Amino acid sequence: MTDPAPATTRRRENTRVRLMDAAAEMFAEVGIDGASVEAICERAGFTRGAFYSNFGSKEELFLALCARSAETTIAAVRARVTSIESRGLEDAGDVLQLVQEVLEATGEDRLDVLLGAETRLQALRNPGFAEAYLALNQGLGESVTQLVRDIAAARGLSLRVPADVATDLLLSVWISTSETALLTRQAPSESRSGLADRLSQVVGLILE
Predict the structure, then answer these.
(1) What average pLDDT does the segment 40-58 reach?
(2) Separation in Å, CA 21 to CA 16, 24, 26, 101, 150
(3) 16 closest CA partner among 71, 53, 63
(4) What is the pTM (predicted TM-score) of this model?
(5) Is residue 91 over pLDDT 70?
(6) Per its UniProt entry, which superkingdom is the organism in (predicted)?
(7) 125 CB contacts (<8 Å, ≥6 apart)?
């Protein structure tokens, strides 16, 4: 007889993914406080029973979403870093372009920006959320910091500030510029241009 366990596991995983995808959209649109379990279930096409068989609460789902976001983002950044390194940092083009390539792996569409803002807000309010958010920042920061060090070494450049401080500056500029672009309803091309200008200024400050 065919073992039903793999099929059951796949169905359960599919249910979790659909619930998390629906919740990500809801949290980005109305925040965690404004998104009810019922609304998440309706958007995902499941019942409350399906929700509670996978998550103990809306807060537990949010933390699972934070963990998934952290894994996805860090994996994307590391893959981008590996791709850049395989081309050879000495010949991979402009320093600013290298940095921008990596930061673009963190995502820049409207949903990403809104969900990121909601995550930071909840992290400020709730210690449990703060732990998940800090884990994302740590993994992302470590990957970008190593790239900053590698670029400086490969190009024979010196850092005016410690590499981890340089990373904090770059990520802060990325987040601030992305949120400002959304607030001011900038077109994608205008947003990318503004980001490039700001990153260029920061790169000029941290490298010599």
Answers:
(1) 94
(2) 9, 5, 9, 26, 36
(3) 53
(4) 0.72
(5) no
(6) Bacteria
(7) none
